[in-house]
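Summary for the steering committee. The consortium agreed at its last meeting that each partner would contribute one worked example illustrating the joint modelling workflow. Our contribution is presented below. We chose a case with several input lines so that the handling of multiple components could be demonstrated. No manual editing was applied between input and output; the record is shown as generated.
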Amino acid sequence: MPLALQTLRAIPARLRQRLRGGGDPNAARIRRRQALANKAWQGLPLIKLVLFAVGYLWLLAIPSAQFGQRTYIDENALQPGQVHTYWSWNDVHRADRVLEDLERLRDHNATSDEYVIANYVVGEFEKIGIPARTQHYAFDTVDGVTEGTNAYAVLQSPRASGTEAIVISASWLSRAGDGDGTLNLRGVATVISLAQYLKKYSLWAKDLVFVISDGYLDGMQAWITTYHGAAQPNLHAEPLTLSSGVIWTAVNVDYPGHSFSHLGIFFEGLNGRLPNQDLLNSVSLITRHTGGLPVLVHDHIDPRDTPNQPEILPSWLPDVIKSNPDVQEYAVRARNIVRHMNYQARGAASGVHGLLHQFRIDAITVFAVPATGPHGFHSLGKILESSLRTMNNLLERLHASFFFFLLVGPGTFMKIGSYLPSVILVGTAMLFSGLGEWVNAGWTLAAPPIGSDEKKEPSQASGATWVQRPRPVLLAVSIMAATHLLGVVLFYVVSSRLVNATVVFMLFSALPALALQLVPLPAPPSAPLATVLKAFNLCFASAVVSITSVLNFSLAAALAVFMGLPLTLASSSPSLPKRIAKYALYSVLALGWLVLCPEETRKAIWNWEVLGVWLAPFICIVYAPLVLQAALVCTLHAQSS
Amino acid sequence: MRWQYCWKTALVLVVQLAVVGAASEQFDEDLTIRPLRDGKLSARFSFSSLLKDARPRDPQQLSNDDEAQHYALFPLALGQILREYAVTELHLSLNAGKWNYDAWGYPDEPGIGTGAELWVWMGESMPASVDLRWQGLRNALAGLFCASLGHLDEQRTTAPALTFQPEGSLPNFTYPHQLRHATLPSEHVCTENLTPFLKLLPCKSLSGIASLLNPHRLFDADWHGLGVHVRYQEAVGVEVRLTFQGVFDPVRYSNERRRDWSLHSVFDRSIERACPVARSSKIRVELPPGSSPYSITPDPSAINDGVATYVVDASEEALDVAMRWPMEDTFEYPNTSEAPPLTEVSVRRNLKGTNQAEAQLTLVVTNNLPVQVTAGYLETMPWLLQFHLHTFHAHVNGVARDDLVSILSYTPPVPHSRPALLQAVLTLPPSSTLHLTMDVVKPFLRYTEHQPDAQRGWDLPPAVLVPFAFGKGQNSTVAASHGRRPRRIYTPIMLVDLATPDFSMPYNVIIMSCTLIALIFGSVFNLLTRKFVVVRVSSAPAAPAEAAAEQRQR
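What follows is the complete predicted structure of the assembly.
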């Protein structure tokens, strides 16, 4: 018995010994740590490779049918689709009459005089008994003055204290073609007719604010900024003489065609902000059940459901692949995600609703996808009525559901946890590469020293030893700071548009390389500048990617693609032509947009000036300098290592 | 024989009581109807009971037994509360909606602030202080009217005595009277408040004008509010006036969008019989000015000064007053930007700003008269919004005019306990608009202080503006000199968003912060208690045999 007990007692000790090894436990711990670090160092290339591969593959796998889950309503108060709608053909008739008036105004070229439309709209609202006013505004931009006149009306709801409000808006220009001049006449007519209809009911718990904004995005930006009293130096807008309370939700109506077949939901806001998912889900539920028509993410009609739709998959693919349901699903989802990422990464609003998110208003655009039928004012009115009733039910701000999500289909979404790791993995790979460079910079293999020193560690391979060397940290950091300062200059040059884009490109891509020639390079005992610069560059870029990923996933994904591998692969080369070629390549990656997409650049600048979209300064001050730093790494002649 | 005697005695007693009651108590009811220019209809019910020659209780006598309370018409439930807490004057209003001064003019009852408002004048006394009785009073009224008046605690109580002057007279007690005033803007008014209100009336809602108080219609009105007003008048007595005020929208009720109305169309009831104990019972209809022809039926008892008066009489048949505009097919709304506002002063108040820490309070006051107007401005703000008084500025047409704000008095708030009180006198230049702006700070709440519906935000009470002098210098007319007291203008209430934690995941937050604290504690503790020594580490671990030997030696 005692023997058995003794054996039992010895088990933990033996286990401990097996795990920790014998001897001094502290020494064992240090040895273990060294072994681990050694393993990690030896396996670093593999770790980097795996992280990059998994990260990029994950990004590619996001649209696959295996990911995603059904959407659901989280806020119990919403109760979407639980009401009878009373919107009738009388109201449709009234909308038709308003439309006739609007078309007459359009045909008489009233759009040239901005006040005519706004005054007409105000007159219509006043006739209904809803106080309405106009607001004139002008934005000063580099391209000149953007001006217009908004019309807005505040329906003070019976019994309501007027502390909360819902905005129902329609812009004069439709989002179809991104405000290129397609008029949103039917959207405006819907809102005016809806106003008269909604006034008949005393069930509204919140004020209803109707906004007919001029232009595409500029009108609403002027109105909402003035409403919240936010200062914008280049905006001259009349103050609003009618006011209401805090706006919680808003819906923007966009109906550019003659009739429509599907209702598209647009939800991307400025700077990558999204509305609460409950709002989208409620409206799409109501559209399907009350309105009886299919819902789309954006205006992407699924070719599998509707005949005569253009195929998404390229025609050169073999039919075996094209007819595979998984591949088709992948293509449909990929199209939605790419469109979404395109808006979000550029920080652009996919409709007028996007301007409201900056003021903590959950807003979406319902877009009547132009078609020859079968739906019109009747369906749209019913959907809007029911949606407004749902928003009216809110007792608190929308807060229950998701603010970060990827809507891969009308009824399918991905939680942030299922797509965020892809970019984080790429960021981690960059961080590991950077740290590897940092270690490389700090140590060098030296010839075996004379005599033996106990402190020196014998190297694994030969008799050579690792010796520490100074790293030119200050120089590397100064160069980085200088490139970012150059980015600030670049931003001012680009946004003032004083100089031709090609000249700017030539100038700003050549300048860093030329300036580098003036920098005294560190002498051989210290680490080569290229290594230290690359280490810092990668670590900083990794931090940028990781931080951006939680703010604006699409932008982070774009950065992961454009900076992940290129920055990691930046290296010098012994031959001068190769170095020059590499430098040129990186310059194009950094600043090529100046020459290759001038229209996109112009839009980004306008978005910054008028709407405050951060894309233009971000590209100029963060992205371009980071890539230029990688370009500089390529030009620096690698010294003895 | 004996029973018969008893019965007879009882009858005599009842008759005597009734006679005595009739002699010492009076009940008058009155309904004022005003068609408004935007097609709506304002109706004000007023039921006043007068206790003749009564005096409010002297708070010094609170420790002694009170006199017996026998009322025939005067509401006993309310009377008991008034005696218990020795209240001299009391005004309670429970309102829903936003009063549109520009289109509707001054209300018949001035207290129209959204939500609940309670203000009382009470004599100070030694054993039971005003604050103690104020607390008891609001709880008693909360019970009586089924309203959350208990929330009108010290965090909302102020004493703006200049704006809320007593409407009756104050008896000469040992100590002076004091005002207590509190508002609860988030209070919702509904039928559960009306039922106890009706119980206080001698005829309930069974007969007389009160029979029109149909909750289905009253609470569908665009604006509605009920009020309780108690005042003492020297040599007259204690008067309790129960009021109900509503703004109805006949255009909304009519399918043809006409503004025709009748008692039946608005209240879904007509007056079938008069209240037998009412001394007077009148319906006054203000006749609309303007050119559009109208008809009013039945013929009124009297018309003077553009007011048609109907006497609700026991002998008459069911009374259903109706007004029609036969020439109008549908009602045409007046253009709101052209129609002149109906009050001397229009006021808008907003909270501008987008972040959760700071905002800007803006008050836009427009003087609609061609003469200078002087107005008192009162802001009673819970500590949820803290003023930066040095940023309080006035502008007219973009020109700084800080001289237009005078006699500024400010009681700063005490976080978590007392509201701020800001009073000022504004001088409004003729036909111009004064912009007042002030930066405010949104404080950070303790997590227990958040409401159950935390993401809604906080309702802030209305500001009050009292225009009291019109004209300049010698020519100025003071409102009070016309025998009319200055009228209060309430601004709409506001909603403020304070920084709110995500209460949907408290456990995640708790777990997260506990983990962080544990990690920080662990590492700090480790560093503090550890002894640092230099260890020589050979590259290879000790041979297993050696280690085993070492082990054995131990």
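Residues 452-461 of chain A have pLDDT under 50 and may be disordered. The two ends of chain A are 66 Å apart (CA to CA).
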